[in-house]
Amino acid sequence: MTRTVEWRLVPLLFFSVIVFSGSFVAGQNINDNGTLTFDALPEGDAYNIDSGDIELGGFTLKTTWNIIDGFLKLISPAGPPYDVIIDVISGTIDIDIQSLFSKVQGNITGFVVLFFLGLLFAIIFFLFLIFFCCCRLLCDNCGGKMEQTNSSNFEKLRCVYTGILLLMLFCLIFGAVTALAVSGYTSSQVSDLPDTINNNIDDMLTYVNNTVEEINFLIDKQLPWTVKQVSNDLNDVGDLVGVPVREGLRPTVGAAIAAVYPLANNLSATLSAMEDVNSTQFDLEYLYVDLDTNLSSILTRLDTQCVTCNCCSGFAYSGLSMNMDPRDTQLSPSVSGTFPQEALDASIMALRDVVDLDLSSAADNGSEIFENIPTVLADTTSELADELTKVLSKVSGTISSSVEPVESKISALNTQAEEVQDFLTPILVDVVAYDGFRDIAMTVVFGFILFLAGLFVVGVCLAISGCILNKSPPSKRSSLESCGGCVIMIAAVLSGLLVPPFMLVSSFTFITGGPIDRLVCDNVISREIFVETIDKPDAIIDGYFLGDLLFQNSSIDITVTGLLNACENNKGIYTAFKLENLIDIAQFTNIGQYVGDLDSQFDNITVDFSNVNILTGDTRSSLEEFQNSSNYEISWDVFLAELSKPVTYDVNQGNDLSVLAGTMRTAAATINNTGDKAAIEGFAEELDVIQTNLMAPFIDTKNTLESQIDVLPDYTGKIDMLITDTLDAADLAQAYLDADATSLLQANIMGFKTRILGYPYQFADYIESQIQNEVGKCLPVYNLYSSAVNTVCVGFIQAFNGFWYCLGLCCITMIFTFAFGVKSAKYYRRMDRDSGFDEREYGLPLTNADLFEGENQVAPQQDD
Q1: CA-CA distance, 156 to 822, in Å (whole number)?
Q2: Which burial class, exposed, middle or buried, applies to 278 when counting CB atoms under 10 A from its CB (0-12, 13-18, 19+)?
Q3: Cα separation of 195 and 418, whole Å?
Q4: When you count CB atoms within 10 A of the terminal residue's CB, does the N or C end of the chain come out lower?
């Protein structure tokens, strides 16, 4: 019972090896956006045995094996007695000899009959030899007298006997040479036996080690890599969830934030432009007062001078007064200025209030919050990431700890195999050494047979040569011919003496090896013996024998044939041995038991979008109030018309006092009074100064103011549209945040959850696939079985049968060589007397004695 349990542990160790597999990483693992692609298992160490087939030898040996196989099937046509085998296995064998024989007679009758025929023939032939020797030695050479009588068939009989003898010699040589080839084949198998057994044991150790390597490869590489993918994604939740959520919001929320900047920039630019206009107008008004004062002064003094000297007829100076008035309309009731200072002040104040809202900063703040959604989400899920990582690490630890005892058992199995190898090594060395004696014995035996065949051949050659060279009557045969006949006779006698012992040896080896080959090996190789016995349900026990033996459950339909077929097709050991009945890999691939309620925890991941504000309530109210007030809309037409007038009423377009100064100098040149002349020239000089210092700056400032006012409509004309766009975008974004942002977030979280939890499930699917199909591919197990069967049945049993076949063939042939050797020898040996031979036929002269002897001699009966 103990041995049975230990034997059962061997496949169980292999079963356990399969269960604790993980996922593979190496350098070829790929994470394609959540879809894991795992690398293949490591190839492991190479096996010594690529196939369990065995070399059958050359044509002669293959022919011999086929002949033996056909012969055994001929004498034992029935299949193995499976009923008896089943009874033996189940322990219900019937001891009744008659009943037992009736079941096996179709299998062993031929073997028994031939065995006893062989024994009987050996005994009878032995007695015949005794009788033959006694007749020749003790009975005056009875049956072997040296006399020969001529007949019409004399030469024909000699040719026939010699021809048959030569044919038998060919068969004898063929049998001996084949036997020596079988002996050499057996020697090669025996010499290879240590390597074969060691290779088989080494391959089994390699198979176990490779399987362990695959397990370690899966556990130490794949599982950590898979856990790392989960950890990486959890740490990268901002990019995997936050970024898609943010980009999903960008078309609305991002557009709303972006819409604030053009409005803010436009308002700031408008305010700046209006302040520039206000500042420029102030400068222009200051220059206006100075210019007006200086012109008024000159005009007054010119009036006085011209009345006194009456010398101003050469020029007109009445236009030296201000034609345009760019001053503020509200400076005083007496001022006729056209500048809309009140409206401008109101616009600047309103714009300043809006600009002071700092829309850009608010947009920057909103943009920062919006862009930081991935970071906020990562911070929110940090605890969940830590918890998931701990759970998966726990799974890894559980599987790894489960593998350790399996690996220790496998290591123990390796140790036991190495102990068996150490135990067998000296035995195999002795087997190889003692096989040399077998080889020597067979070489001696069949070498002697070849020696006998050689004697026969030498004798026949001498006899035929002597007959051809010197054809003479039997009593006068040449020494060469007679020597050949004697050699044939000696070889024939030796052949006859070897037949009984060789027949006994052949019979006993036949009854030993023949049934094993026919009833065991043939059916083990074809696997029929398994199909008809332990694989057949309800044959030995109720259900399947192997299922009960391995799993203590006879309902499991596991069979030896199924195992061998699966391993021959290189299936994984878990599938081949139906290990799901021993260890359910679902306990390791059921990720749900490890993940627990983490699935639901993803539903609690939220992001507060309420702080993503595009416009506050106050800002919105201010913008709407500003838009409705239209304070930024100023009518500049009157003022621009005023600016387009000439500065003065001077006839020279009122803008260039140097023309009038030149005219005055021309007029002064005609004045004789030196004092008046100098006064007019002084006025001209003063006008040039006013032109340079006051008029030119005034005109430049006026032109600048005009250009500044011309730009304002480009800003103010967009304000209403920009405010409307900003408010509409803000409303749309806020509506989207309120209605769809949460669902967008949840959809991405669900996708992320599917991705995260998909890793363990992909890992589980990979484990299951690897366990069932890849881990521990058991072709080496099949090769081990095939090698063992072929080594025993082909390498030894078949070779053993080749021995009795060749020896039996030689025995049967030697019976004929003995008979026809004795017959042939008399046709070549020199006789003491002969009769009926005409010497003239042989070219010899007749003598009187011969004639007399021939007439009076009573011819003896011819000995056949």
Answers
A1: 16
A2: middle
A3: 14
A4: N
Supply the DSSP string of 562-628, one letter for each residue: HHHHHHHTT-BHHHHTTGGGT--THHHH-THHHHTTHHHHGGG-----TT--SS-HHHHHHHHHHHH
How far apart, in whole angstroms, are the C-alpha atoms of residue 162 and residue 545? 63
Q: Where do the structural domains in the chain lie, given as residue ranges?
A: 249-376+610-742
Residue listed under structure tokens 């838009």? 627
Confidence at 19, pLDDT banded by 50, 70, 90: very low
Dihedral over alpha carbons 227, 231, 234, 239 (to 10 degrees)? -110
**Contact partners, residue 368, CB within 8 Å, separation at least 6:** none
Question: DSSP secondary structure string, 206-242?
Answer: HHHHHHHHHHHHIIIIIHHHHHHHHHHHHHTHIIIII
User: If DSSP codes are grouped into helix, strand and coil, which group holds residue 699?
Assistant: helix
**Tell me: the pLDDT tens digits for 537-566?**
877 777 778 778 877 877 888 888 888 888
Q: Per-residue confidence at 372, pLDDT binned at 50, 70, 90? A: confident
pTM for the model stands at: 0.64
Q: Residues 43-90: pLDDT tens digits?
A: 777 777 766 666 666 667 778 878 888 888 888 777 777 676 776 666
What's CA 432's distance to the chain center, in Å?
A: 44
Distances from the Cα of 687 to the Cα of 320, 584, 835, angstroms? 10, 115, 190
Structure confidence at residue 45 (pLDDT): 77
**Rounded to an integer, what distance in angstroms lies between the CA atom of residue 541 and that of residue 552?**
12
Which residue, among 141, 167, 152, 173, has the nearest Cα to 826 in the 3D structure? 141
First to last CA, the chain: 71
Q: Are 227 and 389 in contact (CB under 8 A)?
A: yes
| Bridge partners, residue 32, by sequence | 35
Write the DSSP symbol of residue 328.
B
Give the integer Cα–Cα distance in Å for 490 and 497: 11
Q: Give the strand pairing for 35-37 and 30-32.
A: antiparallel
**Closest by alpha carbon to 324, among 75, 727, 695?**
695
Distances (CA, A) of 671 to 302, 312, 679: 15, 9, 11
Phi, psi for residue 421 in degrees, rounded to 5: -60, -45
pLDDT at 344 over 60: yes
Cβ–Cβ contacts within 10 Å for residue 666, how many?
13
Structural Rg of the chain based on CA atoms? 64
Identify whether the C-beta of residue 59 lies closer than 8 Å to the C-beta of residue 508: no
**What are the backbone dihedrals phi and psi of residue 834, each rounded to the nearest 5 degrees, phi first?**
-145, 165
Handedness of CA 63, 65, 68, 71 (dihedral sign): negative
Evaluate whether 25 touches 39 at the Cβ level (below 8 Å): yes
pLDDT category at 99 given cuts 50, 70, 90 is: low
Q: Where are the alpha helices (DSSP H) in 470-531?
A: 479-515, 522-526, 528-531
Token output for 791: 């080594």
In the block, residue with structure tokens 């007030």? 629
- Chain centroid to CA 820: how far? 73
Angle 79-85-86 (CA atoms, 0-180°, nearest 5)? Answer: 115
Under a CB-based contact definition with an 8 Å cutoff, are residues 701 and 283 in contact? yes
Residue 323, classed as helix, strand or coil, is coil
User: Does residue 601 surpass a pLDDT of 90?
Assistant: no
- State the DSSP code for 487: H
In sequence order, the β-bridge partners of residue 833 are 147
CA 8 to CA 20: how far, in whole Å? 20
> Token pair for residue 796?
């030894």
Taking the C-alpha atoms of residue 785 and residue 204, their distance in angstroms, rounded to an integer, is 11
Q: What is the DSSP letter of 794?
A: I
Rounded Cα distance, 231 and 385, in Å? 7
What is the DSSP secondary structure assignment for residue 334, as one 8-state letter? T
On whether the CB atoms of residues 290 and 652 are closer than 8 A, the answer is no
Integer Cα distance of 369 and 515 in angstroms: 92
